């Protein structure tokens, strides 16, 4: 495990522009060469036989199976839910996925299809994927998703505000969205968990990713998430490693544990296992659970299922072994 950087004192951090700026710019700069070298090294670890079988099932259980297209229909969402509940109909030992992720207008359809299965309903919100709308619109988007039955809300930060140094604006939006995750009056259900998406490919530097991680955690994020999957650069091993180190250091400083979700571009079992090795080496077994680590992916599930079948039968399946999402 790499050594933790020296984090500025948290005692004086307040919800003010000057305080947040002082803290975020007081974080140590990221050693890009060291970060990328460590990520590459962890990516070379070999995982074989029983450990590989365990890792594949763990990765399946961590997937947020996702459809976020303009052409989404209730039928497509119900089909995706059926796949999430029983990823391999020929093998009932295959684990369920962690969640089904949809747009807010499809959250009620997913809720009805998943019922009390334990698979969660996740909904993107806050004008996903650009995040370019007024705060009242973002909050209405969030409340609609929660009222429709979303267990989790994936919000996007205003990258323009963040890159302009308007940290307080971003902080206050996250706080407001978190408050909007509370269930409607009369409900006894817990508030929806909040995942905060940075869109790392648009943040330009590792220093900005570290600052965004701390800013979101200070504002109350339950998870921090790399990307929307809608831009050229999404999850990478180095930018995810940086976020893993941030949640490690945040727990050391505050005692609060925050989850991490890489999303976009993770398509193969080999890729997924690299991320799991990185989580284990950086954070330990505490985070090796769907409660604390997720994959934002859909095509990944098919490859995991084919690799799982290969381990159990000794032969690779044809492309028609799994359903096409």
Automatic annotation (TrEMBL):
Q: Which InterPro entries match?
A: Aldolase_TIM (IPR013785), DeoC (IPR011343), DeoC/FbaB/LacD_aldolase (IPR002915)
Q: Does the keyword Lyase apply?
A: yes
Which stretches are annotated as coiled coil?
A: none
Q: Does the keyword Nuclease apply?
A: no
Give the EC number(s) under which this enzyme is classified: 4.1.2.4
Keyword terms, alphabetized: Lyase, Schiff base
> What is this enzyme's catalytic activity, as reactions?
2-deoxy-D-ribose 5-phosphate = D-glyceraldehyde 3-phosphate + acetaldehyde
Q: Supply the Gene3D superfamilies for this chain.
A: Aldolase class I
- A Pfam family reported for this protein in Swiss-Prot or TrEMBL: DeoC
* GO MF term list: deoxyribose-phosphate aldolase activity
From the UniProt record, give the pathway where this protein acts. Answer: Carbohydrate degradation; 2-deoxy-D-ribose 1-phosphate degradation; D-glyceraldehyde 3-phosphate and acetaldehyde from 2-deoxy-alpha-D-ribose 1-phosphate: step 2/2
Q: Which domain of life is it from?
A: Bacteria
What family does the entry list? Belongs to the DeoC/FbaB aldolase family. DeoC type 2 subfamily.
What name does the UniProt record give this protein? Deoxyribose-phosphate aldolase
Q: Which organism is it from?
A: Streptomyces gossypii
